[in-house]
Design goal:
Layout: H1 7-27, H2 31-53, E1 62-70, H3 75-86, E2 90-96, H4 103-107, E3 111-115, H5 127-148, E4 154-159, H6 165-176, E5 179-184, H7 188-196, H8 201-213, E6 219-222, H9 225-235, E7 240-241, H10 255-266, E8 284-286, E9 290-293, E10 298-301, E11 307-312, H11 322-336, E12 344-349, H12 355-364, E13 370-373, H13 381-386, E14 391-394, H14 406-413, E15 418-421, E16 436-439, H15 442-453, H16 462-473
Parallel strand pairs: 1-2, 1-4, 2-3, 4-5, 5-6, 6-7, 11-12, 11-14, 12-13, 14-15, 15-16
Antiparallel strand pairs: 8-9, 9-10
Helix pairs in contact: 1-2, 5-6, 7-8, 11-15
Length: 478
């Protein structure tokens, strides 16, 4: 890395020499001086570009994966990095390092993580000034990092977020002779429009920016056929659909591992604690869902256990959790009216900007038969909880209508049936009445919960059928 890490230093020297020669020319009137200045600057620029583009024997087996976001919360890009490393590439993984990436990424010797700091921008003055300074600093930061790594054959970046990373990544690829690949997860401007509106100047600028720089990529990947068609029709971009696949860690969880996780969660969240008699505590270890016989270490599910409902979220504007809360209130009403339904423990995992808002709403609910908790799980515990749940709920509503929720992919990897809110291309993933159900509002979700859980814990009803279908048709793991 050291031999190529001098690119920034060379650029600095070039700029200083150019400035000195320019100053010399300005103070003089000799035309020869101008010719000399131009010639020297041209030579220095050529040398610098030659150094940046210089290849070696390992260049074609090196790839940079770029995320202008938290690597630990970018599962698809982690899977890309792992897949590339398994195929013999050396991967430089650039992004924020707020949450710990998956252990497979950390253990893989062909993956080197280059952390970058999240930029906040100037904290005084109008918001526009904060945004502009943030973009400028991020441009300089990315240029510095990407020009200091070894020459790469490809640079693969996630979009969104693409401002300013698309332009910077493209520019670096031009300088270094690398092939530029964009993985389109969604459109950045549609996400910005959720909070600012379609006609906001920043949203319009972001839309123009993506439309201008997006087609400059050498290759493009996308997450749905609907997005592939939209990119071709409205952007002039030919993309390849690469559906998300669950990692091998997403699978049904054995009872022993379920019990161990529930015991750990019970230390923090009372919703997982056993509420019965303590007289057998010496012989058995209990949670609200499981019983472990300490004599032979065998684990069974409790006969009167509640159903475990799971949803995961980033607590952003594209997920309206008031729909789930209203549905849970209606479910509570069904039980009070005499319906034969199990009590519910609803675990909503994740963290994000709107979490505190919804926690206050949750705390204000007065429910007897439904309990809600909002745990933040370690990366290793999340798939274990998914594989232990009885039903998943997804409230992701694509800002563009063209991407699919990764959380449902992971749930299906655990053979966990899902109730998911409708949007245009969701049927590419969720097959209604086959591996789950699609709803449009809280009332429809409440009716679906009632229908699916009416025979709980029996595996003979529709919920069991969906799970069996997932076991049969489950696609290839990553």
């Amino acid at each position: 890395m050291a031999s190529h890490g001098t690119g920034t230093a060379c650029l600095t020297v070039l700029v200083l020499i150019a400035a000195l020669l320019t100053a010399f020319c300005v103070t003089g009137s000799n035309a020869t001086c101008l010719v000399v200045c131009v010639a020297v600057i041209t030579v220095l620029a050529s040398l610098w570009l030659w150094r940046l583009r210089r290849r070696d024997g390992g260049t074609e087996r090196r790839v940079c994966v770029l995320v202008l976001g938290d690597i630990g919360r970018s599962p698809r890009m982690q899977y890309h990095a792992l897949s590339l490393s398994k195929h013999g590439f050396n991967v430089t993984f650039v992004g924020f390092l707020d949450n710990k990436p998956h252990q497979d990424v950390l253990r893989e010797e062909n993956i080197r993580i280059v952390p970058i700091a999240e930029v906040k921008g100037v904290r005084v003055g109008p918001k526009l000034l904060t945004y502009v300074t943030k973009v400028i600093i991020q441009c300089l930061q990315l240029l510095s990092v990407l020009l200091r790594v070894e020459p790469q054959s490809h640079l693969l970046m996630q979009n969104p977020p693409g401002l300013p990373s698309i332009a910077v990544a493209w520019f670096v690829c031009v300088l270094r002779g690398s092939r530029f690949v964009i993985d389109w997860h969604n459109y950045g401007y549609t996400i910005m429009a959720l909070s600012h509106g379609q006609r906001h100047p920043v949203v319009r600028l972001a839309k123009w920016y993506e439309h201008f720089f997006g087609p400059l990529a050498t290759h493009n990947l996308c997450v749905t056929n609907a997005m592939k068609d939209d990119l071709q029709k409205n952007w002039g971009i030919r993309a390849t659909t690469l559906y998300d696949r669950p990692a091998a860690i997403f699978r049904e969880t054995p009872l022993k591992l379920q019990h161990e996780l529930f015991m750990r969660l019970a230390n923090t969240y009372p919703q997982f604690q056993h509420r019965g008699s303590e007289e057998e505590e010496v012989k058995v270890e209990r949670t609200i869902f499981t019983v472990c016989d300490l004599a032979d270490d065998s684990v069974t599910l409790t006969t009167e256990r509640p159903a475990l409902l799971l949803s995961s979220t980033s607590w952003t504007e594209d997920e309206d959790f008031s729909i789930l809360l209203e549905a849970l209130k209606e479910y509570e009403g069904f039980i009070k009216e005499g319906a034969s339904l199990p009590p519910l423990v609803c675990a909503i995992t994740g963290k994000g900007p709107q979490k505190e808002h919804y926690r206050k709403l949750i705390d204000s609910l007065q429910l007897e038969h439904v309990e809600i908790c909002t745990p933040w799980l370690e990366a290793e515990d999340y798939p274990v909880l998914l594989g232990s749940a009885d039903l998943g709920v997804c409230l992701h509503k694509s800002s563009s209508g063209l991407d699919l929720p990764m959380k449902v992919v992971d749930m299906f990897g655990c053979c966990l049936p899902v109730c998911a809110i409708h949007f245009d291309c969701l049927q590419e993933l969720v097959k209604h009445e086959e591996n789950g159900l699609i709803f449009r509002d809280s009332q429809e979700l409440a009716e679906q919960l009632k229908s699916l859980l009416s025979e709980f814990p029996s595996s003979e009803g529709r919920l069991g059928l969906f799970r069996r279908n997932l076991r049969t048709s489950r696609g290839q793991h990553f």
